[in-house]
Each structure stands twice: as C-alpha cells, then as structure tokens.
C-alpha cells in the first residue's frame, strides 16, 4: 500500500503541508467577521437600511452613562454637551443624541436625576464598528473628571468586550487542554509517541481547517464563531479517530506492521471514513440557513471532519508504519472481561435496563421543555467587565430602555397625519412614551412638543420612536411587545425596526428554518446509516438515541444556564433565557461527537454479526472491543472540555458544561446501556433490510 511503502515521504510531505497551512491559518482570525443578529431581508433589516439612508441615523449601539458628581445632571449641562460634541466629532459616529440635546427627555435620565445618557450610532459593519469601539472609544470615553463620571455601554461595546474576553478565555483553556489531553493520552497508551500523534492529528485538523476558512473568506462571509467550532470539534474528532485507528493497529500488529496498517485501514479506516461522511453531510445541512454566522458552523464543521479524517487515514497510518511494534505497550495489556460481563448483565434484563436508562435520560432532559430563547445581553460578561458594570448601573437607575427604542418608519409618509397612530402606540402595554414629529405621547395623550423633531423626518418620510419600559424587554417579553406594536393600525405602510425588532425577527426566521435543517440532518443520517449497515432498525435507533443524548444536554443547559443552578459555583449571572445561537452551536458539537461513538460501536457489532450470525454474541463482543475505546475517548474529551467552564464568558462555560455532559451521557447511558439493551430486544430484526436474504 502507498502509505506503508512511502511512509517517510508521506510524513515529510505532511510536515511541510502543516507548516504551509499554518502560515495561511495565521491570518485567519483577521479575515473572519463579527456577525450581527439579523435576518437578511426581514422587516427590521429593511427598517435599518431606511434609517441610515433617509434619516442618517440608526440603532443606538453606543451608550455613554454620565454621572454627575455630587449634583444633578441638569447642573452639568456644559460639561455633558462638550462630551457629546467630542463624541460626535469622531469620524465613525453618524448620529448622537442625549438627555441634554433632547430637551431634557426624562426617558434619558435616571430616577434620582444624578445620571443621564448620551446615545450614539456608530457606523460600519459589525467587525469595523466593534473594532473602533474597542480601540478608539471604549478607553477614551471611560473617564472621571471633576464634574462627571462616564461609563461606556451599548450592544456593540458589549460584543467587543465579549469577543476580547472570549478570545483570552479560549486561549487559556486551550493552553490547559493541550497538556491535560497529552497526559491522559500517555496514561491510556503508555506511549508518549502515540499520545503526541493523536494530539497532532487534532492540531492538524484545526490548522488545516483554519487555513481553508481563510481561503473561503475570499468568497463568502465567515463568522468568528467558526473558529470556536473548529477548535472544539477539531481536537475532539482528531482524538476520536486516532484512538480508533491506533487501537485497531495494536490489535493487528501480531501479524506484522504492513498487515496491521492495511487491515486497520480496511476496517477501522472504513469506519472512520463513514463516520466522517455522516457527520460532514449532516453538518452541511446548516448551509440551508440564510444567516452567515450559522452557515459558518456548517463550513467549519465540514472542513473539520474532512481534515480530521485525512489526518487519521493518511498521516497517522504512515507514522504507525514507522513505529511498527514500538506502538505496543511495554507490557501486554490484560484482556478485560468487564465490558463483556456488563453487556451480559444488560442483555440479560434488557427491559429493566432500557427503562432505567430512559428514566435517567428523561430526568436530565426534562428541564429542556422549559427552554426559552431570549435576547442576549451584557450579563454574559463577568461583573468585573466595564460595560457590564455600566449596564448594571443602567438597570438599577433607569426605568426605560431609551437605547432600545423601536423605530416605526413610514418611508413615504411625510405628509401623513401620525397623531392618532402615535397616540394609539403610546397606549400599548410596555410603551413608556412615543416621540413623533407632532409631539410626545404618553398613555394616549399628547404631553408636549417633540424634542428635535427634525431628527424624526426626512425629505421622503417620517418616523416614530416607541420607548419601551425596562421590564417589557426582559426574558421573552420582547416578542409579545413587538407583536402588540405591529398590531396597531397605521395610516400608511410602516416598517418596524430597532434592536428588539431585529432580535425578534431573527429568532422568528430561525425558528422557521430550524425544522428544515433538523429534517435534513436526520434524513441524511438515516440514509447513510441504512446504506452502510444494511439495516432499517439500526439507523432508527441511532437517530432516536442521538436525540435523547442531545435532549439530556439541553436539559442540563436549561437547568444550569437558564434557570441558574450552580451559578455561584461557575460564576455567571443567569438571565432566564438562552442565546439563540448557542443551542445550535452545541447541537453541532454534540451531534458530531455522539455520532462518532455510535458508528464505532455499531461497526464492531456489525462486523462480529457478519462473522458469526449470532446477534446476541455480536452485541457482547462489539461492546467488549469498542466500549473501552469509547469510554477512554469520553473521559479524555469530557475532562478537556470541562476546562472551558472555567472561563469568564458564559458562552464558553456553556460549551464546556454542555459538551462534557453530552459526551459522558452518550458514552455511558446511551452506548453502554441503551444500545445493547435495545439491540438485544430487537434480536435478528436489527439486521432486517429489504431485499436481504434472511440469515
């Protein structure tokens, strides 16, 4: 075989390729972009475009919280006005308004009158905006003078700090994961070289995927989220595939090195290739989503699988061919009968163990029924972050969310009479006040002239601002609030925009597409499993058990991160909802890893069944041969991923806890109990396939 005969050349070529890819990958992070939560083509996105084009303004994405030192905000007008003018002079700031320039708008002032806000629209795409806020505005406008204390907040400022903190946490976790992973692999293999090879396959996958993503950025938009899934899945799949290949190579070494490599590639290699095909084609279904940052999960996931499979089936076999018998333990491992006996116990009472396993998974999954998807906010950051501290002060002192105003835009309604419409909007539950060109409206009544009415009109049309109360945007209330606003009859066609509308439209559009993606993933998985294992029941069980594993993971994520269990231990602040992106990210990670374990176990069981024709014996032998491998991979990866829970950003903590939990449940309850129990109950029906002769 080519890999065996040209082992040295393959390894040198692999080293050179890795160095070249590493040089390309070095520029990947700078080429990735920070995506906003928006649904392309939605009403809120169209509203944002009209705001920028016709009104030269946009959503308030930067907030300066101004605190008067020892007095009220009315006594520091000169200093605050100068601060506003300084911000307006920044070349990327397109619009600025404040308590002082808005005729003492009470929604822009704290309850006790000692604080007020300056709001700004910083122009540019998400990457440019956040970089400018981080590099030019965050530090310079966080200040203390004789008259004022100034803090910086805003959606883009929070995103900038989240990205910065997450990058530090991720690097720290990776620095901890690498030595921990290496140490655990050395304990497992009893060979340092094999541990380094396994880790090397994972790193090759990460480097090669980042390089490929760098090339893709010239064609499509790739989100920074792609780097997260690349690191997590690259190491995970690299370890899984390498463990499986090396384990089979060691089994076959008694017949010689060349025979061992060839047999390993024919058996374990086929399984790895098939596993990669299933995972890659399933993750490719994410490309059906019309959102760049979610499609980035698909791009990264497919590339990770391809590169991990390439590393495990080309570079690793060449290295094993060089090592030969040196890959064996110094002392032969004793053949354990633990998993065989465990399998006998499970298959002796399959109904009892099936019910027990389902009950345990059901208990873990139960909280998932209460999953609530809400708007992400600053509380994903630790309390020590400056933007988090500013937002904590805003929540404590302000009754309204003036920075999250809902814009109701009539692009061709310049001459329309908006007075009845504005009055009706002000009566909607959750609206503190409505600003229109015709005045300010509260509870259905006009209470005065509009501050700066020129900001609310353009040569083409007019717009209104509905200022929400703070309570209405908490949890999942934003959706109902937007529905109430949109239900108010308007005198002309109106576009509803603003940050709450963008998040609500994004969530609604995502909910519409997720079922399609789920059907594609489950359908692709079923077809591929049925084609390879020549069975209809096996893919059905595999799909159901994978869903059970994911349900358990989501249950724990809801229980911990939504409901706040162990929040003090992990050091995060629960807000009662989950960010819409991370259930999907966790689905990608958990699905990829759990499918690996499923394919590894079923491959050994199927192999033994085809040799013996005895379904019960095949289950026991397959469990004995694959369970130690799956368990070792699970322990190694679960401990490694759990290190992400030590981060300061809730997103990384979710990755750590969710991935570790999914791996443990999948490798123990699902693969060690439910799979053998259900296969025992099914008996020969496991292998039924249309057109197959009975065996």
Automatic annotation (TrEMBL):
Keywords: Cell membrane, Membrane, Transmembrane, Transmembrane helix. This is MMPL family transporter. PANTHER family: MEMBRANE PROTEIN MJ1562-RELATED, MEMBRANE PROTEIN SCO6666-RELATED. The chain crosses the membrane at residues 170-189, 194-213, 225-246, 272-293, 299-324, 351-375, 516-537, 544-561, 581-605, 626-645, 651-674. InterPro entries: MMPL_dom, Mycobact_MmpL, SSD. The keyword Membrane applies. Its main location: membrane. The lineage of its organism: Bacteria, Bacillati, Actinomycetota, Actinomycetes, Cryptosporangiales. Belongs to the resistance-nodulation-cell division (RND) (TC 2.A.6) family. MmpL subfamily. It is a multi-pass membrane protein. Residues 191-322, 512-680 form the SSD domain. Signal peptide: none annotated. It comes from the Bacteria. The keyword Phosphoprotein does not apply.
């Amino acid at each position: 075989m080519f890999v065996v005969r040209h082992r040295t050349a393959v390894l040198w070529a692999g080293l050179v390729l890795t160095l070249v890819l590493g040089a390309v990958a070095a520029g990947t992070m700078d080429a990735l972009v920070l995506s906003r939560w928006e649904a392309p083509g939605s009403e809120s996105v169209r509203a944002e475009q009209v705001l920028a084009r016709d009104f030269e303004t946009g959503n308030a994405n930067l907030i300066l919280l101004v605190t008067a030192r020892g007095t009220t905000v009315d006594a520091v007008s000169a200093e605050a006005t100068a601060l506003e003018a300084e911000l307006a002079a920044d070349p990327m700031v397109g619009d600025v308004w404040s308590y002082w320039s808005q005729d003492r708008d009470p929604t822009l002032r704290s309850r006790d009158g000692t604080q007020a806000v300056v709001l700004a629209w910083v122009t540019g795409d998400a990457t440019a905006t956040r970089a400018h806020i981080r590099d030019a505005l965050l530090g310079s406008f966080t200040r203390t003078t004789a008259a004022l204390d100034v803090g910086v907040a805003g959606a883009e400022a929070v995103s900038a700090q989240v990205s910065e903190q997450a990058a530090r946490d991720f690097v720290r976790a990776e620095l901890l994961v690498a030595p921990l992973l290496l140490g655990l692999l050395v304990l497992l293999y009893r060979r340092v070289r094999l541990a380094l090879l396994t880790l090397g396959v994972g790193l090759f996958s990460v480097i090669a995927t980042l390089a490929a993503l760098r090339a893709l950025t010239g064609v499509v938009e790739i989100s920074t989220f792609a780097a997260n899934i690349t690191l997590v899945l690259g190491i995970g799949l690299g370890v899984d595939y390498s463990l499986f290949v090396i384990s089979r190579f060691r089994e076959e070494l008694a017949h010689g090195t060349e025979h061992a490599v060839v047999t390993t590639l024919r058996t374990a290699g086929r399984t790895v290739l098939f596993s990669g095909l299933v995972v890659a084609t399933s993750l490719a279904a994410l490309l059906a989503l019309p959102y760049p940052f979610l499609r980035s999960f698909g791009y990264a996931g497919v590339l990770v699988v391809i590169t991990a499979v390439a590393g495990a089936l080309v570079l690793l076999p060449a290295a094993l061919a060089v090592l030969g018998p040196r890959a064996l333990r110094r002392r032969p491992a004793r053949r354990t009968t633990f998993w065989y006996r465990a399998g006998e116990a499970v298959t002796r009472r399959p109904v009892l163990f099936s019910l027990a396993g389902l009950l345990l998974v059901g208990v873990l999954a139960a909280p998932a029924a209460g999953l609530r998807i809400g708007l992400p906010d600053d509380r994903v950051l630790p309390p020590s972050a400056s933007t988090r501290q500013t937002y904590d002060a805003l929540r404590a002192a302000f009754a309204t969310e003036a920075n999250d105003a809902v814009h109701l835009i009539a692009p061709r309604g310049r001459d329309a009479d908006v007075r009845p419409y504005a009055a009706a909007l002000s009566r909607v539950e959750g609206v503190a006040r409505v600003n229109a060109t015709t005045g300010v409206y509260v509870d259905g009544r006009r209470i005065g002239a509009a501050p700066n009415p020129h900001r609310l009109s353009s040569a083409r049309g007019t717009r209104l601002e509905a200022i929400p109360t703070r309570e209405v945007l908490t949890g999942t209330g934003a959706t109902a609030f937007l529905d109430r606003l949109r239900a108010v009859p308007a005198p002309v066609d109106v576009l509803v925009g603003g940050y709450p509308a963008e998040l609500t439209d994004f969530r609604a559009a995502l909910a519409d597409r997720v079922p399609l993606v789920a059907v594609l993933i489950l359908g692709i998985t079923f077809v591929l499993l049925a084609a390879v294992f020549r069975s209809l029941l096996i893919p059905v069980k595999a799909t159901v058990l994978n869903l059970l594993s994911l349900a358990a993971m989501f249950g724990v994520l809801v229980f911990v991160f939504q409901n706040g269990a162990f929040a003090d231990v992990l050091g995060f602040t629960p807000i009662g909802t989950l960010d819409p992106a991370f259930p999907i990210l966790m689905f990608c990670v958990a699905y990829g890893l759990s499918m690996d374990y499923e394919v590894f176990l079923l491959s050994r069981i199927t192999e033994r069944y085809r040799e013996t024709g005895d379904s019960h014996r095949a289950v026991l032998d397959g469990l004995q041969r694959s369970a130690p491998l799956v368990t070792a991979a699970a322990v190694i990866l679960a401990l490694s991923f759990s290190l992400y829970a030590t981060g300061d950003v809730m997103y990384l903590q979710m990755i750590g806890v969710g991935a570790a939990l999914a791996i443990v449940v999948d490798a123990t309850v699902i693969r060690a109990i439910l799979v053998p129990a259900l296969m025992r109950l099914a008996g020969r029906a496991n292998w039924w396939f249309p057109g197959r002769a009975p065996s």
